[in-house]
Write a structure and sequence with these properties.
Oligomer: single chain
Strand order of the largest sheet: 25-24-26-27-35-34-33-30-31
Structural class: alpha+beta
Low-confidence stretches: 1-41
Largest sheet: 9 strands, mixed
Mean pLDDT: 89
Helix content: 10-25%
Strand content: 25-35%
Radius of gyration: 37 Å
Distance between the termini: 72 Å
Shape: globular
Number of helices: 17
Length: 853
């Protein structure tokens, strides 16, 4: 019997052309949002009708009474195996040959902490055509009472002898009527749902998932026999997670075809045995009674207080839903819509389902999601719809249907006929070494020629086109961006008539160059100026003061709305600081950008609270980190510890060149004896070196002093990158000590250059010094700064890695003072070079520089 589709047909503005085409682009399938249109009707199936006539209220009552007569089916009661054996015997008596007792261990903490054996009962009904496709109908058979002793009496007639009886009755009727399912059905009576943890359904679902069992659908019944309503007002609750809304909608349509109940689609999930499957991504729904049963979980939950007629109707609904879903054709695959580019036509393409018999396809058309005013039938996998209105967004749904009138779930996509191409979507940027890579998703217009890429330094201007020929790929690399400059990139689609798309949104990026000096990345939440709650201006003033001798830029994460590699990669050194402990999520969210920055060879300092929370999301202590973890691989930290009561007053240096640094009492409350809380102990892993230890004025025998001498600073000074992690925020330290520390790191560890203007303002040099070149790495020019204490003959030359001199930059007498010389390395190959300062007083100093193109 064919489905009677209740859809109004419009006037014939649609011209249909059937033909075969290869899919023109990769699938751009959009998951249907909950609440969209699904199937408007279901076929009245004669086989289902025949089976439902055999579902017998007297038999259902017998099953429920028999389960009640066990007295209790509590999960800890010793008769639980006897109950399972009785259920098994019923399945065997119906004629099932594959019935098993599935045992598993359950750990129960209430009322006693114990591990006991539990058993599910599974009867398998093999499919005639798709035996590997599994459909489950289940219910739990255990019971519970909240008042009284469940070991002695827990009748559980409604909860859940009614659900258990549903699987027994449906199994009985199917065997009696010689029903042959095309896919395999498993009838499962689950143990120990009432215990709340490690239930029978959880155990079975996990084992099935881990072994790759192909479970297509799970239907669960839990408490389905209580109502006080008249026949015309009785409802049934349909539960399931939002991701499987179409199954709930479909079962509600089944209700109108076969039973006299009102379906109630519940917005949330009912936490019963069905959820054990749906949380693993397996479609599952559950039926339950629509009224609260006041006698549930009590000694009055007995058969005489149940409505067997009502229970019978829900069991009929379960049977009809299960068989209908088994018989449903599969959804189409790879459905996409291509704009033909003429302002009036859309091309539809899809792939047929591979695992099910079907007759053809229904195509639904409308201008609102789920509301269709035209329906079409296609035997093919392509269709052009003509005579549409330009600029109107059309919602197009597609289903498969079979000879019996069953229709698959609907897939909906949208398309808009336009004369101009659509703006490319999915536009992303990726900074590279002296380059910027752009990516976007392919346009689906039928007459697409390619793309044009534009670049501007002004967000409000399109700028210059970068490509000469139209780009046919969905990737483009800007090979020549200027170092340190932010650009706004725009990609426009181009059709065969050279029309470009409009309303394109530019994307901001810049290349990785590591030559723009120091950037201060401020993660601190803007405070009100109270203790431990500094204002943004106070934090900025502090860091600008301790870095006054260096060229630097400030980057405020809150003001900028985030941070990425495009923001970090231009700088040779990143100082990432946080002076509050309320929100440490940004570093963890941007780990990939920080990793890439370090992979390019950057210098990185973190100074703030709780680095393991910031970079690993850790909240439990102690914690270990291993290979594959950012903390271990990049920060060279293998272990962290924290005592929430511990208090930190300063850091004791344990590595040459570092000086002590102690808290500024003006910034810390006297209630903590001028100590800071929330300071981690960070222990170096392979490659790391511990540079500071935790100090406190509290006695080590107290909780406040318990972390004394644990490491709070770790450095890694490698040839690939350099990183220093301080688990205390410098902002709360003595400003002079913090300045000495940061200058030591900048000059001695990271080879950053003191600004030449700053040097010239200092007193006359008292010694020869060769400073690190800036920028470094560089391309193709760099500046070398040096100081001379007396009039001297000076020679500065460049050498390759073989020690061969390649160029002399200075060879003359120099006056006392600070001097600079530029090396233009145009024409030299990329690589490592050395520059050497020689003076006639016998002074010689050599440093390394890197030319990268």
């Amino acid at each position: 019997m064919f489905k009677n589709i209740i859809i109004k047909l419009t006037t014939p503005i649609i011209v249909i052309i059937f033909f075969s085409l290869n899919v023109l682009s990769e699938n751009n399938l959009k998951v249907r949002d909950p609440g969209q249109h699904q199937i408007t009707n279901t076929p009245a199936d004669s086989i289902i009708t025949t089976l439902l006539l055999e579902i017998n209220p007297d038999t259902i009552e017998y099953f429920m009474q028999s389960l009640e007569d066990f007295g209790t089916r509590y999960a800890l009661a010793p008769n639980r195996f006897e109950v399972a054996d009785w259920i098994k015997s019923k399945f065997i008596g119906f004629g099932f040959s594959d019935v098993v007792i599935d045992s598993f261990e359950q750990h129960i903490t209430i009322p006693t902490d114990t591990t006991i054996w539990q058993v599910n009962v599974i009867a398998t009904f093999p499919g005639t055509e798709r035996s590997d496709d599994i459909y489950i109908i289940g219910a739990h058979y255990d019971s519970w009472v909240t008042i009284g002793d469940p070991m002695l009496f827990a009748p559980g007639a409604d909860d859940n002898a009614s659900g258990s009886s549903s699987i027994l009755e449906i199994a009985r009727v199917m065997k009696k009527m010689n029903f042959q399912p095309e896919a395999t059905i498993k009838f499962i009576a689950f143990a120990t749902e009432e215990s709340g943890t490690e239930s029978g359904s959880e155990n079975y679902a996990k084992k099935a998932y881990d072994t790759g069992m192909n479970i297509e659908f799970m239907l669960n019944n839990d408490a389905i026999s209580y109502t006080t309503q008249s026949i015309e007002n009785r409802g049934v609750n349909i539960w399931g997670i939002p991701e499987f809304i179409e199954y709930k909608e479909y079962s509600s349509l089944i209700t109108s075809n076969y039973i006299a109940l009102t379906p109630i689609i519940m917005p949330t999930n009912y936490g019963s045995d069905g959820y054990s499957f749906s949380r693993l991504g397996i479609p599952a729904i559950s039926f339950s009674e629509a009224e609260h049963n006041p006698k549930m979980h009590s000694e009055e939950d007995i058969v005489s207080n149940c409505n067997i007629e009502y229970c019978t109707e829900i069991i009929k609904l379960s049977c009809a839903t299960l068989i209908s879903i088994i018989g449903m054709p599969s959804k189409v695959e790879n459905f996409d819509i291509v704009d033909m580019g003429d302002g009036k036509s859309l091309l539809l393409n899809w792939s047929p389902p591979s695992d099910h018999d079907f007759e053809g396809y229904h195509i639904y058309l409308g201008t609102e999601s789920g509301i269709y005013d035209t329906t079409l039938i296609s035997p093919d996998t392509s269709m052009i719809i003509n005579n549409l209105m330009e600029g109107v967004e059309y919602f197009i749904g597609i289903t498969t249907y079979d000879l019996d009138g069953y229709e698959s779930f609907l897939i909906e996509e949208t398309g808009t006929p336009l004369s101009l191409p659509l703006s490319p979507s999915g536009f992303t940027e990726s900074p590279l070494w002296h380059k910027v890579e752009l990516n976007w998703l392919p346009n689906l217009e039928y007459d697409l020629l390619g793309y044009n890429i534009y670049r501007s330094t002004n967000v409000d201007e399109l700028g210059n086109k970068l490509n000469v020929e139209v780009v046919t790929d969905t990737i483009f690399t800007d090979e020549a961006p200027e170092n340190g400059i932010y650009y706004y990139y725009t990609v426009k689609a181009v059709d065969s008539m050279q029309n470009e798309s409009i309303n394109n949104t530019p994307i901001k990026s810049r290349s990785v160059s590591l030559d723009q000096g120091i950037v201060l990345v401020d993660e601190t939440t803007d405070g009100n100026g109270s203790i431990l709650n500094p204002t943004d201006e106070e934090v900025d003033d502090f860091y600008n003061a301790i870095l006054e001798r260096f060229e630097r830029q400030n980057f405020d994460i809150i003001e900028e709305g985030g941070v990425s590699l495009a923001d970090l990669g231009a700088f040779s050194t990143v100082i990432w600081h946080g002076s509050d402990y309320r929100d440490l999520t940004v570093p963890f969210d941007r780990l990939d950008d920080i990793k890439r920055y370090l992979d390019y060879g950057g210098n990185f300092i973190y100074t703030g609270f709780l680095p393991s929370e910031a970079f690993a999301g850790n909240i439990l202590y102690p914690a270990d980190f291993n290979a594959g973890d950012f903390m271990y691989d990049y920060l060279k930290i293998s272990h962290v510890e924290k005592n929430f009561a511990s208090r930190f007053v300063g850091a004791i240096p344990v590595f040459m060149g570092y000086d002590e640094v102690y808290a500024d009492s003006a910034k810390i409350p006297p209630t903590t004896n001028y100590h800071l809380p929330f300071i981690e102990g960070i222990f170096a892993g392979p490659g790391g070196t511990e540079i500071y230890l935790y100090d406190t004025y509290f006695d080590t025998s107290t909780a406040q002093g318990s972390m004394k001498n644990e490491p709070v600073g770790v450095e890694y000074i490698g040839d690939d990158y350099k990183v220093i992690t301080l688990s205390f925020p410098l902002y709360y330290m003595n400003i002079d000590q913090a300045k000495a520390l940061i200058e030591h790191i900048m000059i001695e560890k990271f080879n950053e250059v003191v600004a030449i203007e700053d040097l010239k303002q200092e007193t006359t040099p008292t010694k020869f010094v060769l400073y690190q070149n800036y920028p470094n790495p560089f391309n193709p020019t760099t500046m070398i700064t040096y100081q001379v204490p007396t009039i001297s003959d000076v020679d500065i030359s460049i050498y390759n890695i073989l020690g061969q001199k390649v160029v002399t930059l200075v060879s003359e007498k120099k006056q006392t003072g600070y001097h600079m010389v530029e090396w233009d390395a145009s024409g030299f190959a990329s690589g490592v070079y050395y520059y050497k300062l020689r003076c006639d007083q016998g002074f010689v100093q050599t440093k390394k520089l890197i030319l990268l193109r």
